[in-house]
Every structure is written in structure tokens, then in C-alpha cells.
User: What shape does this take?
Amino acid sequence: MLEPLFGVLALFPTADDLLKAIPEVKKRGFTKLEAYTPYPVHGIDEALDLPKSKLGVLVFLMASLGAISMFLFEWWTSTVSYPLLTAGKAYNGWPAWVPPMLEGTILVGTFTAALGMLFVFNRLPFFGNPMLRSKAIDRITREKFALVIRPGAGGLDTGGAIAALKAAGGEDIEVVQAPRYSKAGLAWWSKAIGAVGAACVVAGYGTAWVIRTFPTTRPMVEMEDQPRLDAQAADTFFASGRGMQLPPDGTVPRTFMPILAAGPGDGGKALMNPLPVTDSVLERGRTQFDIHCAVCHDRLGTGKAWLDSTYKAQPTDLQSSTVRDASDGYLYWVISRGFASMPAYAADISPDDRWAIIRYVRALQRSQDAPMRDVK
Amino acid sequence: MSAASVRRGLWALAALGGGGVAATYFLAGAQRFWVNWLLWFVFGTCLALGALFLVALQHMTGARWSVPLRRAAERIGALTPWLVPVAIVALFSLPVVFSWTQPDAASLTPLVLKEHWLNRPFFIIRLAVCVTLWVVSYVVLVRGSVRQDETKDPHATVRLRRFSPVFMILLALTITDFAFDWVSSLEATWYSDIFGVYLFAGAVTTAIAAVLLAVMHLQRAGRLPGVTRDHVYNLGGLLFGFTIFWAYIAFSQYLLQWYADLPEEVFWFQQRLSGAMEYVFIVLGVGHFFVPFLALMSRDDKKSWTRLRWVAVWVIFMEFVDVFWLISPVLGPGIHLGWPELSFAAFFVPAGLLVLGRAMRLGDDMPTGDPFLQAGLDFHLP
Assistant: This one.
């Protein structure tokens, strides 16, 4: 089978010879030329009338896009999604966004330059270039400079091309055929993507298997792996031998509020709920109740939550008449000091949040035992 | 217009400006006079030191392409000896515009801590040391190179290559000290470690622009045979690079002080960001960075001499705006721009051009004694 023609090739001993040959070949009417050289040759672009690469424009556009996306990302995360005050700056603290914007510009710009060059302008992947089949290719990569006359729209006058190259001083003239290479079709792409996917799956399951089989293996050193004092751990640094220290005598933490009641009976008289009944107080109470209380007392306060069956405990039914009739001060005392198997929550819930929870519990009770006038 | 008539015009303008400069002292006040004097002192020093830096950089890197252009940088470096009288006169500004010399300075705690550095005898000694080192470096670097034109002694090149790293270290120390003493210490409680680099970045950018203008001027006049568009293209690339470097340093200084938000630091930026000075700041950010950055980005831009000439003039003007932005707010809020500033410009610009015009006849137009001159002329872009 006759293979289609790729072109007629001639070798030149030096870069200058190649540059001199190009206009001579052009003079004979051959304009579709390609040059192959072992290193970049000055002036070859102009000699071959190659158009200026569009890569720069593409890189500029993509780099600008990188800067703009990073700006929007920073603006959205620190102003819209999770407004965060840093060091007393306004939310729109744009100077802090400039370094990431610079990184985004460079990252997207360099990736565009490399990948755009390979995949957009050089049209990778392809499975071979006819030049690789030529006899001259190993000398081109080493020492020789090649000029190839490619067929134009009307084909190529092979004899004329050989004569033109010979006249211009070309040696080792060779007619290069263009065998048909397979193209990267659907099958190739699915194989390539499938191989990458398979590698990910193998790596993922492999890591998981190693971690499960050798539990002390840590695939990654994380922030928790650092020298520090743990709350309940022994430590030789302090004389007491404990990591956790008691506050010095005669001091209290800045936010500490003592409970001004001796016991549940006394508390009922002494303590009043300082918070008003407002939407925001009830909303705060609901959040805190759902975090700390609902796990045992149930979200409606019925005392039948999922922990009952697990621990066989009997949490108090907050809807019962005992709790209904108890004063706010009594409930505050119970939350703060604990009751029966319920632990004290003074360390976990701030005083205001405790009062808000009580407001919310009252609302829950009302919701389950509403008088007729509420329904109307 | 002949060269002689241009020179006569420059002399006339300088004389007119000189009258305005003298009038400033008596009509607009001593403060206004000294602030303007410092402005031109700092600007001139930046230009001269930036040019010497380019000369030393060329020796140190052993670059071939820049050898034919080195004489242009050396000639701009010839401004250095002229800094001596300007610096001596500038010393008289000490009691007038520097905050640490004012009577109430003793009450400011940070100034008490800086007393060992900011006192008059030590300040004058530091200036004398800096200026001496600059003039000596100028003599070694530039005069040594000019002498080589006649002796054709290749050993001179070796000696200059050995001296250049020493000069780099001296320049790093002296320009930092100069920036701290003559710009930072105007507001003596302010401090910024990066400030010396800031002034250096602007100085080199300006010097590259000046060399670019000189090379294009001499080449058009046919005095640089063999210097091609490729050489000028490379200078444009350097200008582009240092434009980015200046912006990087300028923004780093701003970002750190903005973040830390310390009262003894941010007041300096507040002075330069409030009222009408804010517009100068915006002009500076856009004009000193974005304009040359975008104007020189593409390869074709750096091949167009028309564009390079405009960008170079613009960059030099922007460096002046930068120095104005640094120094002028000492006078208080608002933009202090009027006939005194115009007079100073009318005096120093023609005076500088006359000095540079004379310097353009220093030695041969290219370093003809340098053994690498031919290699430099053979340079072609890839």
C-alpha cells in the first residue's frame, strides 16, 4: 500500500546554512516549509514566516482570571460566607487578599503556559510524528539541521523539491512518507481515564488496608501530633505531676459567676430569670438545649431520647408537673450543680445560656400543654 | 534646534529656576525650601546610585550583552560627584524639617530610645562616610573604565569585577542608611525595616529608564554602531522586571504595617493616605506599577522604541512622584504643589540635563577597552 507523502527532507551542516537555504527554496515556489533543529535557532521564526504564538494572550487571560477568582474567593469566604474579623480590620480587608491573588495569578498562568503549550497548541496526545520514522531523525537530534518541504494544497512536485533542496546546498535528501497513526479516540481516552481512576482506587484501598492492619501506622502527621499538655494527662513539668493545673488560691476566672443560692429550696426564692422573653433569647435557648440537653431529655423535653435505651437511664420528664411547677431559680440550680446522675453543666454552659435554656424549656412546656386561648 | 541653542535654553531655564529657588526661601518659608531641597537630593542620589548599581551588576554577573551599554550607565553615574555640594547644603535642613531635632523631641519616648543613632554629630559623620564611599566607588568603577579606553588593558576588567561585589555590599549598607537618615528620620518615630530596599528598588528602576533614554538617544545619533534593537529590548525587560520588584517591595511594606496596625507605624501611612495625598498614592500605585507593567508586558511592546521612550520618561516622572509622596507630607496635610515646587524643578531638571549632557562626552561612547565589547555587540535575541 502506498503511504501518503509527508515531505522532502534535506540536512544542512550548520544553522547558518539552514537559514541561507530557506529563502532560496522559497524563491523556487515552495512555501510550506518546516525546520527541525537540535536546539532553538535565532531568526528561524522570521525566516519561516511563522506567526507569533498566541500562547502569551492565553496566559494573560487565564492569569487575570486566576487573580479575579482568587479575589472573589477571598471576598466570599471572609465577607459573605463566614465573616471573620481579623485584628480589627474591616471585612473587606483587601490588602490581605493580595498575596493569595498573586499566587493564584502565577499558578493559573504557569499551568496555562505548560498545559496550553502541550495540549492546545501542540495538539497532544498524538501517537507519533512521521519525522520520527525518517532516517535522518537521530542526526537531527544530535548535529544536523533539517529543512522539510511539505506538500501544499495541490500536492508536491517531488522531483522539483529535491532539485530545489540540492541547489540550496542540502545533503542526504530523503522523501519522508506519512504512515497513518491511530488517533486518540474514545477508546484511548476511556482507557487513560480508567487507568488514572484505577490507580486512585488502588491507592485509596491500599492506604485504608494498611491503616486497618497496622493500627499504629499514621499515614500523615497531623496537628494533633505535637508536644503539648493534655487536660487529663500526667506530666512531669509541674510539681503536682499533672498536666491540668488548679487556679491559684484566691482567684477566679474572668467570666466566673458564683451561684448565689445554697440549695434548690433557697434558689427558688433568691434567683430570678434575668432574660426577657424575646425571639432571640428563645432561639439561643433552643440552640443550647439541642446541644446539651436534648440528647437525654429529648428535643421536646419528654425525657425519652435515644440515650435511654443505651444507658438504661431515667432522665426527668421536663413536661411533668414537678418541673412545670418548679421555679426558674430551681432549674438554674439543677443545671449548674447537676441532679442525681445528671452532671453539673456550669463549666459547659454560660450563665446567660442557662437562663435562655430555661426560657426555652418554658416554651416547650407551653407547646405541649397549651390552654385553649393559645389555640384560638 | 542645535545642541548649542538647547544648552543656552537650559542655562536660561536653570537661571530662572534658581531665582525661584532663592525666592522660595524668603517668600514661602525655610521649611518649604528645605523639603524641596531634600526631595531633589534624594531623587538625584537615587538616580546616581541606581546607575552605579547597574554598572557593578554588569561586572559582577559578567553579562556580555550589556557591555556596549555600560558606558551610558557609567555616564549617568557621573552625577555622583555633583551630589557632594547638594548634600552639604542639605545638612542645613537638619534643624528645620527633621522631627528629631525639634525642641519637643525629648518628650517622645521612641526618640529617646533612638538617641544613640539620631544625633547631629553621628548623622553628619554617616553622611560624610556614605558620600565619600559613593564618590570613591564612582572613581573606581567609572573612571577606571574610562581609563581602559586608552590603555586597552584587560586587567582593568578583572579589577572592576573584583571590586563590584565589594561595592554591592557598600551600596546595600549606604543606601539603607541614606533611606533611614534622610527620608525615614523626617518622621523619626516611624520605622520600617524594608524602607532601604524600597528606595533601592525605585532607584534602580529610574536608572534603567535613564539608561534606556540615553542609549536610544545616542543610538539615534549614530554614536552606538552595532547596538541593535535586541540590546534595547533587554533593557526594556530589565525595566519591566524592576517595575514588578518595586511594586512587590512597596506592597510588602504597606501590607505588614496595615496588618500590624501599630500606632507608631500607621500614622506615617495615615499622613500619606488622608486628604488630597490619597490621590497621589493612587496615582503612584497605578502609575509606578500598572502603567509600565501593562505597557511593557508583551514582546512587541519592548521592541517599539516609541513606546519604550514614553514609558522611560513616565517611570522617571513616577519615581519623582514617589519621592514627593515620601517627603512632602512633612509639611502638613494637603498637597504642597505650587510655584516653589515648579521653581525647584525648573532649576534641578535643566541643571541635571546639563550635567548629564556633559557626561555624555565622557570617554568613548562604548567601553572600547573592554575585551568583551565585541561579544556584547554580537548579542542577538533568541
